[in-house]
């Protein structure tokens, strides 16, 4: 039974947050009593129906009491909502009785203070919430979909069988949150008349504080603190659980590429900066924090990470990619997703699928991009990260992109959204469209005649949920028409809804739909340990590009005056852009320097110039004379620099020059920034250039004439402290470039990886006949970055040096800190296929490790190499490893190679057993050769273990006839795994005789197959971290 609270739970606010109440508990109680009494009387007059009354918020309670004529116009929607819930669920006699009792008590009801947010959230309809399960459909029976112990697929089918077409189609849309499409922060009676009375697939960005581009964060009372925000989202969730027929929870989605987009949350560097950390463990921690804070705030799905690969430095969204290497993007994306989805706390949604970041000429129309590249490049560069993150991290969400490829919009491509994504990659989550991508099929791409046709194309292609800034009716109503007219089968609808429900079950929405620990939300979001990780990320993202004569680090004890200038010196907005926290405290570079020096030296500051000039962006095409005011500002910076011992000039980009829909035609410093820098350098004082920006810049003049340059990207809210730590030597910079800095925009496209000799020996030598008609080589290459210390590489080992295509090998080297400071080195492994059937890249990144070394310390680094690092797409567009030689290179950057060696891949018949295996051994393996004998030691506690694609091979007695084998598998997580049994009759060629799936471990299983004469038997694993504890094979060759 619903009960009405006289101090309603629909508005349990902390009195300290409502200034207009003036902390008057008596005033609050009077208002509540009058409101409830009046609402009940209105209900009686309207025969208990929901009243279409005006519902503005109460802005001034005193005005309300003093002006009775405005009573109806200022009835609070929250009180109306609760009163209606009460009145519509009791029989008439009980209502009249309770009304009479209540009206009689109104005059004597004691005054009470407005309720605070409770520490633990409790829903209202308590009869629905049984011990261990929730009666979502309110029938008093535990249905299969309500049973937490039932298999997820069974729960999905049970729920799907109970859903109407109306309920199914409502699951296939997003409702944009407060002040975007949804007008209300909390449920109102009108919701019972809206389309989402039958449920809704997702609610996006609800109460996260974002309003519109260019506007400050929302001041709605439910955006902060975290407990209040979580409570509000619980109330919205409660509407869908308690007030819809089947009680299907909604999926609260939000952005989160640099921390959860909320009024406040832990604020990290933008994704480009995170890429420059090269730190897998750090990305896992950031993913954990992002997922945990999102869930504590009430969100269940975060649109991150971005898995696009950077290709054109002019592109506005370059700030959002991890870098240019598909391998690096995949490695960091895997860690981010594993962290976010840890314990299924939220679903991660990777974006933008597919080929979104290779827009021709960096042009961005409303359809955003026009990618033009070969199918081979699409596969090797753009598909690669998505494929690996889906397969290795279990990505639960994918956002489809705006663009077309080869004439077909991704949004309506069955090939990309179904054949490739679900078929080839094994994706089992749901696909959500980028905002308005469905509409673009007829408004921009022109491949659909109207919205109805765009809906049909999208759903047939594989879209699960439409996301846009429009009412969900615009999608759902034509979708229902298509089904009723026979243009779209309901089975397709069922397939799309299955995926949506699967994600909701996986993240626990049907078992734990509410964020009940409201006190914990305040403790978790922005907690100190999270902020320390954010500071670590800011420090590790900084790259030292130049440091002539060891200008850096600065010696604070010898500096009496330091000049700081530049448009980004005292700027904060770079940390507060869309897709991350909106209102956190930001430490600027100026403030970081001031706090670092603590008054021990005088800090002189002037801005010097604006980020862009009055004629920008036209000033990128032609030079305009300095205005009188611009000249004066530069002269101020020069004057203060002459008074100082050293100058720090903070330049770069910002929200006007970089971001979504902000591609540039130039890579030069915008506006008057170069004029300012030249004037400061001309003083003869030592100058340090700090770049705060979202893309590589062509800073040729600075590279030649400025002694020290730091690239900090957009370093997050802790960026100023991190930069100051680096400037004064409290932190030794160790970031390395994950992008290429061209010398000029005319070199674009210029990326890593590139084809051999495409830049004429990296710019070291001229072309044929001394041709020097163009600039060659990078200003700063991929992988580059300096340190305050030095590192030495030694002792390269490749073991084994000869392998077959499915074998693993291990590459090791030693790295020694030969300097006087502790520091980080990013050790990078590159692979080149020496001879191949198709052209391949000059180098492919195949491994990296960020390692911290004290002065004089040496560490050994080991890189595993498997077939993923050696594969190419052959002439038939199949991924294969071609036998032959591969050059393995270890270095400090893609051009600074310190060690190299040769790995040989042989055909199966050429090298069945590796050199590390004794000639008389009957057992060999593609990996972990030292443990192969565990499979015949009669001890189930010992085992050989491998990953997907690894195998163990048994040499059989001569002319052995074999038709069965007993295998005892071992796996820690007990999840089912695929495997194959293969036989060879010689020559190294194996044929599969048995393939299957097992979920039984630690006991022997017998597998039978057709009797065959064979020389070797092989067991091939279909999953990672699977062990074989024991094998019974009488035909095994004796030593």
From TrEMBL:
SMART domains: Fn3_like
Taxonomy, superkingdom: Bacteria
Family annotation (SUPFAM superfamilies): (Trans)glycosidases, Beta-D-glucan exohydrolase, C-terminal domain, Galactose-binding domain-like
Domain annotation Fibronectin type III-like: ranges: 825-894
GO molecular function, a single term: alpha-L-arabinofuranosidase activity
Matching InterPro entries: BXL (IPR044993), FA58C (IPR000421), Fn3-like (IPR026891), Galactose-bd-like_sf (IPR008979), GH (IPR017853), Glyco_hydro_3_C (IPR002772), Glyco_hydro_3_C_sf (IPR036881), Glyco_hydro_3_N (IPR001764)
Keywords for this protein: Hydrolase, Signal
Biological-process GO terms, alphabetical: arabinan catabolic process; xylan catabolic process
Family: Belongs to the glycosyl hydrolase 3 family.
PANTHER family found in the cross-reference section: BETA-D-XYLOSIDASE 5-RELATED, SUGAR HYDROLASE-RELATED
The name this protein goes by in its record: Fibronectin type III-like domain-containing protein
